[in-house]
Amino acid sequence: MTGDRIVIDGGATTLVLGVADDGRLHQLGLGGPDAAAIDASFPTSLYPLAYPTHGEEVLREPALRATHGTGSTSVRLLVDGHSEQLHPHGRVHRIELVDRTAPLLVVLCWRTWPEHGVIEQWVEVTNTGDAPTVLHQAASAAPAVPGDDPWFTHWGGGWAQEWTETTEPLTPGVKSVASAGGVRPSLHRAPVVLYAGRGRATETSGSVLAATLLWGGDVRFDAEVALHRHTRLLAGFQHRGAERRLDPGEWFVTPAAALVWSDEGIGATSRALHRWARDHKVRDGHRPRSIVFNNWEAMFFDLDTDKVRAVVDGAAAVGAEVFLLDDGWFGDRHPRDDDQQGLGDWMVDAAKFPDGLGPVIDHTLAAGLRFGLWVEPEMVNPRSGLYEQHPDWVVAEPGRERREERNQLVLDVLQPEVRDFVLGVIDEAVALHPGISYLKWDANRDLFEVGSPALPADRQTHLAIDRVRATEEIMAEVARRHPEVDLMLCASGGGRSNLETLRWFHELWTSDDTDPIDRVRIQWGASHLLPASVLPAHVTRWGGKPIGFACAVALSGRFGFDLDPATLTDQERATATQATATAKQIRTVVQFGDLHRLVSPVGSSRAALAYVDPATGKDRR
Ligand code: DGJ
User: What is the DSSP secondary-structure string of 251-301?
Assistant: First the structure.
């Protein structure tokens, strides 16, 4: 192996690795296709390590840290083998590294997508010894980024403030950005960053690396600048509170990161991610999305059959294609009249809908719209029949107070009967209401007291990863059982904005903030990762802006509405109807075209973008 060069060829994104004389793996190059041209006279050992570990590079931030069964805390890896295989769209490389003395096998894995210019990377860690190992952290990727003028872009916020951009020059030290809370991570921190090593990149110029984590849980990015040394980006799951115990023979596979390089500015990285997402990640990525009319902001919890029918009529009048009945339709002894109770009791509220949802669904279908329903299957209000019956079904720590957020707790899907219950919520909603072809799957709180009886005492920290994977297994099963039902992903707005969970969803609710002025900035930020086809943008009354302006902003995403149609003046209704017709006309270009961001709303009061039909070159601005 010594002296070997390994080229991970992702087309526009290329990573070159080399094995030094002492057997350590180094990164020789990262960039466009010409990154493969390496100066052979420069010693491999002087290049940065490809995957730095705690105890190897003492002064640098590690990608991996573990405590072995002996109590030893350092990891020093040497290359032990390399294999390469084809997959339908590129290659899979696996480089095996073993510790010099401790029983640890670390396999670095890459999947290339040369047509899209994307490289995926993940890591598999196996305890090959006969005593338990504790894995404290394991980043998915640790690319060193060339250049001595590093700039970092990341997005964060909170409820109704998703995708607030920060672009900053990096100074020596480590800049860490991360999410927490486990359930709605991207509400706080988006799972994508930009790293420009050779000065600030613009939309159309400069070298830049975009990195995203394909992960529905908490993420962490550490951008490190070492004085007079190379800079590096660590991308992985948030390891704080997520340690893994690996028994002899056990292994752990990290989520994958995706890396996209551009020498022509930021715009090219977004277009590559959009194409890759539509072709390979998002569910039914090439199916045009429908125009949805949601009733949440029109009605909140104030529902009954006639009121809902009236909104359906208004939705039909402006030309919408799906009517979505949001929160508030369910509950029994604890009717869902506000957000304080009823969550978990998924029977139709007989006081609001004495004949069930049938009359509303029939009315919707007769009006020519499809019918959609809101659920929040992973959560429970303590004031519910479900909680009264099963107080032990929630994520909690024994003896610790159960703090509520939005008056609710998180169901513990690691318990098999809870998993079956969550699946059953969807199965029943679909089985009992023939005519449903759209579901909005919401989740409105984070995790505080993290514990599960399904895990032994020495593995309680596994919940951080295992809960995400268990939830995604349920989502995958829902998609498998109900292929005819479109799914919208929501977590208090855009709390689950990542490319992994979208494998089972058609779109995700971008943000609860629908003030068109704020929305320009939010949609702009989200477009650095997600294509417009998965980003609903609804016309509402939020912010009290003119309907025409709200329509113009919503037309740049997956168009829809969330307002009381009875409040529309004749002129506003005409504007909304015209906008719906326009949305139908332009949706192929907006949802499947190439996005060019022209004027940034960040720090300015103007914004402009264009979607270009790659086949004809025609654009929609
Ligand atoms: C939070 C979502 O983001 C809203 O769109 C709405 O569905 C509410 N939950 C309902 O409780």
Answer: EEEPPEEEEEEESB-HHHHHHHHHHHIIIIISTTTTSPPP-EEE-HHHHTT
Residues in the chain: 621
CA distance 313 to 450: 45
Measured CA distances, 438 to 157, 326, 425 (Å): 29, 11, 14
Contacts of 374 (CB under 8 A, 6+ apart): 296, 324, 325, 326, 327, 329, 439, 440, 442
Long-range contacts of 565-571 (CB under 8 A, 24+ apart): 565/298, 565/310, 565/311, 565/313, 565/314, 565/315, 565/317, 565/318, 566/310, 566/311, 566/314, 567/541, 568/314, 568/318
507 lines ligand 1 (CB under 6 A): no
**490 CB near ligand 1 (under 6 Å):** yes
Report CA(512)–ligand 1 centroid distance (Å): 7
Question: pLDDT tens digits for 578-604?
Answer: 999 999 999 999 999 999 999 999 999
Residue 366: strand pairing partners:
none
User: Would you say the CB of residue 512 lies under 6 angstroms from ligand 1?
Assistant: yes
**For 327-373, what is each residue's pLDDT tens digit?**
999 999 999 999 999 999 999 999 999 999 999 999 999 999 999 99
- DSSP H helices in 282-415: 296-299, 305-317, 358-366, 385-389
Pairing assessment for the beta strands 173-178 and 558-561 based on DSSP bridges: unpaired
Average pLDDT over the chain reads 96
What is the rounded distance in angstroms from the CA atom of residue 322 to the CA atom of residue 317?
12
How many angstroms is it from 57 CA to the middle of ligand 1?
47
Q: Which pLDDT belongs to residue 2? A: 58
* 276 Cβ inside 6 Å of ligand 1: no
Amino acid at 410: V
Residue 161 DSSP symbol: -
Looking at ligand 1, which residue's alpha carbon is closest to its atom 9?
Answer: 492
Identify the pLDDT of residue 620: 65
Say what the pLDDT of residue 63 is. 98
- Please write the tens of the pLDDT for every residue from 72-108: 999 999 999 999 999 999 999 999 999 999 999 999 9
Q: How big is the CA angle at 180 (ends 301 and 65), to the nearest 5 degrees?
A: 160
Q: Which residue in 168, 129, 172 sits closest to 148, CA to CA?
A: 172
3-class SS of residue 575: helix
pLDDT above 80 (res 493):
yes
Q: Tell me how far CA of residue 316 lies from CA of 310, 320, 322, 363, 435, in angstroms.
A: 10, 6, 9, 11, 17
Among candidate residues 506, 415, 408, the one with its CA nearest the CA of residue 454: 415
SS3 181: coil
